[in-house]
Write a structure and sequence with these properties.
This protein is of the alpha/beta class. It is about 35% helix and about 15% strand.
Length: about 270
């Protein structure tokens, strides 16, 4: 499948705010401005005004990264590790990524959809096989791949315990990261623990619950900010990023910093 003009434009625009900030400091620092590419699904993706207040965590990640580290958010609603590749989206990233850049990969929500052969992968075979294509592709370009287990949905049992929803996929990704020597951000475990701490009612404030919708998968601004904070913290913890690359890990991020561009503008 050929990428549309809008898809290519969106990918380019995703880097603009931070890239401009990096340009202003280029003379002050000998380091080349790097880009962190995100390959993922709707939980990370850029959202537009027609979907507000739904917010992907990739929209909030730049708030926690220094200005010379651009974010190119290629995550797209509804994609699995398989369909993202089959539609040419990984190839589009590999056409842009440069030595020293990062490729952060988070999939599983749609890989789990066994009734859809265009998206379904089996955790211990095809899921791992497709993920290897991201790892191999990034490495071939001199970039560093990073795996992130899928962020958890909001689900609680009758006793108020947060319940995991991703089956064997997180375990399969953890095993692959160990085999390949790739940094693993265990966002599934961290988000599950966060939902447990917040509890049944408080978590509603983090997901896309509105007067007309009760969405236990996608985030609103507080949820996206919270998950992005987990991602940035894990990037630092696993030494993918240095302390100078991150900021505001313990600071309050105003919800007003989240903006949704008009679909007509891209």
């Amino acid at each position: 499948m050929t990428l549309t003009r809008r898809q290519v434009t969106v990918a380019a625009l995703a880097t603009v705010p931070l890239a401009l900030g990096a340009a202003g400091t280029a003379q002050a620092s000998p380091r080349r401005a790097r880009t962190l590419f995100i390959a993922g699904d709707s939980t990370a993706a850029q959202k537009y005004s027609d979907a507000a207040p739904e917010t992907g965590w990739g929209m909030a990640l730049p708030f926690f990264l220094c200005k010379d580290l651009a974010v190119a958010n290629h995550a797209v609603n509804g994609r699995s590790s398989k369909s993202f590749v089959d539609e040419g989206r990984l190839d589009a990233i590999l056409g842009l990524i440069r030595p020293g850049d990062l490729l952060l990969v988070q999939f599983a929500h749609n890989d789990e959809k066994s009734a859809d052969p265009t998206r379904y992968t089996e955790p211990w075979t095809t899921y791992q096989d497709y993920l290897r294509r991201y790892l191999d592709g990034a490495r071939a370009k001199g970039a560093r791949p990073v795996l992130a287990t899928p962020v958890e949905r909001r689900k609680f049992d009758a006793n108020g315990n947060a319940v995991p929803t991703h089956g064997e996929y997180p375990a399969a990704m953890r095993a692959l990261a160990g085999e390949e020597g790739v940094a693993l951000l265990d966002i599934q475990a961290l988000s599950l623990a966060l939902w447990q701490r917040l509890g049944v009612e408080e978590t509603k404030k983090y997901f896309n619950w509105t007067d007309t919708e009760q969405d236990n998968t996608h985030f609103n601004p507080p949820g996206a900010i919270a998950v992005a904070r987990l991602v940035a913290g894990e990037l630092l913890k696993h030494r993918v990023l240095a302390p100078r690359d991150v900021r505001r890990l313990d600071a309050e991020i105003p919800e007003s910093w989240i903006t949704w561009p008009s679909p007509a503008a891209v």
